[in-house]
Structures are given as C-alpha cells and as structure tokens.
Design brief:
The protein is an alpha+beta fold. Helix content is 48%, strand content 17%.
Length: 151
C-alpha cells in the first residue's frame, strides 16, 4: 500500500462520515415530525457502509500497464451504500387535541432517541477527525519522502 492509497482510503471515509453526520442531523431535526408526505410519522434513518471495489476496467488497466501491485485487489475505499429506514415502531403518545391524533387520541411520534443520536453523532465526528489526522500524516510522509529525494 502506497501513500496515495492511504489518502484515497481516508478521503473516501471522510466523505462517508460526513454523509452519516447529515443523516443523523436529519433524524434529530425530525424527532417531532408526526406527519410526512408518505403519511405517518418520520422514520428514523440509518446508514449502511460498504467497501468500494475496483472496477473491471481498473483491474485490466493495472494488469495491462504492468502494475502488478494494483492488479487483483480492491481499491479499499469506503462508501455509504444506502440509507435505510429504522424498523422500530413509532412511539404513541396520548394527545387527543393534536391534529394527527387517531380516533383514540394517540399521536404516532418517530422512534428517535436524542441521546442515542448524539452518541452516534459524536462517533461520526470522532471517525471524521481520525481520518483527517490520517490524511495529514500521509501528507507529511509524502512531503518527507520528496524532501529526502531532493537531497
């Protein structure tokens, strides 16, 4: 693995963690949304990360250009593959005067725990910071390598 591979991996992880933070912020912003365009309360969203593999073209190009260290391996990038709805049932609260109340006076609220969302957000921010540190360290290693080659 070369220094530019490390930048590529950390860069893709930075993008994935930023997207994760945006999903968490959306969950928090809609914690009290009882009516959506689809009907019913807002559904909490969760992210699914996956590894992004090299395409067939990239693998053939690596083999054709006599770069065996690239041939036959995944690119090692992280990506947000999908955003899925949390299957947890909505929280029912007795509020008979609410416009979204059912015939028994209960309103369906999203099953969003603000404490859990904050913990998830802190984890996402910390992962982002760690990947930013890895990018900085990679840049420093590349710069030191260039300085050594200059002398």
């Amino acid at each position: 693995m070369g220094p530019f591979d490390m930048l590529q991996i950390s860069g893709s992880a930075l993008t994935a963690e930023r997207q994760r933070s945006e999903v968490i912020a959306t969950n928090m912003a809609n914690a009290n949304t009882t009516h959506t365009a689809e009907g019913g309360p807002f559904k909490r969203k969760e992210v699914v990360f996956s590894a992004q593999h090299a395409s067939a073209f990239q693998l053939q190009f690596a083999a054709a250009t006599n770069m065996p260290h690239f041939a036959g391996r995944a690119s090692g990038q992280v990506r947000l593959s999908q955003v899925v709805d949390d299957p947890t049932a909505p929280v029912m609260r007795y509020e008979p005067g609410h416009p979204d109340a059912n015939k028994d006076g209960y309103v369906a609220y999203p099953a969003i725990n603000p404490v859990q969302e904050m913990v998830d957000l802190m984890g996402s921010v910390r992962a982002y910071q760690l990947n930013a540190s890895a990018v900085a360290a990679s840049k420093q290693m590349i710069q030191q390598s260039v300085d050594i080659l200059k002398s």
